[in-house]
């Protein structure tokens, strides 16, 4: 019964991720971990860690997301698990690659480094069901990219305006243009789409 509860929790977590409900997912992660820890369900715990990392990346908490992902990789490496990571490739492959580039020490720790490379290859080859590539017509202007970068860093509209030395209303105009081009409706979705499409 408890194993079934863990499975249901993971499925609901994946639903929250696929519908871009990242804050709800973050609030739900402790429940997933509790359910899967009752009988040491390592597969469920691994799902929980990958969901947690995906949600953190999506809201711009890159460093924390990287740490959670490394925890997932350490757990997965115990049984040389690879295929599970492919499921999260669309949301984690690009951020994971960047995290490794910033933490080169992980790539020198044998045999863990070999496992990291295999996982990354698996994630990058996984088909993306969560998004479609941006078309040529959706390319962003230089200023829109700047606004997007600051958005991903968690700055408010006013903070972005102050940094760029423009009026806050100008930032809002750029954001509206970004939302339209990225086919999203809010800041969180814009951050996630930008990560998935390697725009920043």
- Please state the CA-atom Rg, rounded to the nearest Å: 18 Å
Structural class: mainly alpha
Mean pLDDT equals 82
Distance between the termini: 44 Å
Helix content range: over 70%
* Number of continuous helical runs: 11
Along the chain, the helix and strand elements come as HHHHHHHHHHH
**Count of strand segments:** 0
Spans of at least 5 consecutive residues whose pLDDT stays below 50 are 129-137
Strand content: under 5%
Q: What characterizes the major β-sheet?
A: none
> What best-fitting shape do the alpha-carbon axes yield?
globular
Work out the oligomeric state of the chains in this entry: single chain
Structure description:
Helices cover 72% and strands 0% of the residues. The protein is built from eleven helices and no strands. It has helices at residues 2-18, 22-37, 42-58, 62-77, 83-87, 89-102, 112-125, 142-152, 157-164, 168-182, 187-196. The longest helix has 17 residues, at 2-18. The N and C termini lie far apart (44 Å). Mean pLDDT is 82; it is low at 129-137.
Which terms would index this structure?
single chain, 200 residues, mainly alpha, 11 helices
Question: What is this structure's SSE topology?
Answer:
Elements: H1 2-18, H2 22-37, H3 42-58, H4 62-77, H5 83-87, H6 89-102, H7 112-125, H8 142-152, H9 157-164, H10 168-182, H11 187-196
Helix pairs in contact: 1-2, 1-3, 2-3, 3-4, 6-7, 8-10, 9-10, 10-11
């Amino acid at each position: 019964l408890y194993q079934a509860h863990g499975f249901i929790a993971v499925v609901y977590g994946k639903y929250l991720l696929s519908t871009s409900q990242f804050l709800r997912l973050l609030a739900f992660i402790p429940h997933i971990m509790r359910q899967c820890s009752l009988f040491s369900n390592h597969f469920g715990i691994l799902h929980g860690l990958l969901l947690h990392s995906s949600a953190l990346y999506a809201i711009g908490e890159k460093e924390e997301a990287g740490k959670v992902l490394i925890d997932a990789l350490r757990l997965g490496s115990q049984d040389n698990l690879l295929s599970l990571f492919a499921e999260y490739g669309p949301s984690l492959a690009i951020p994971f690659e960047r995290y490794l580039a910033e933490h080169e020490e992980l790539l020198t720790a044998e045999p863990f480094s070999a496992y990291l490379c295999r996982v990354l290859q698996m994630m990058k080859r996984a088909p993306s069901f969560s998004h479609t590539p941006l078309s040529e017509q959706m390319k962003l202007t230089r200023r829109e990219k700047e606004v997007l970068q600051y958005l991903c860093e968690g700055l408010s509209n006013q903070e972005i305006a102050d940094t760029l030395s423009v009026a806050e209303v100008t930032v809002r105009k750029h954001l509206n243009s970004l939302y339209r081009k990225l086919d999203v409706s809010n800041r969180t979705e814009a951050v996630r789409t930008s990560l998935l499409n390697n725009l920043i």
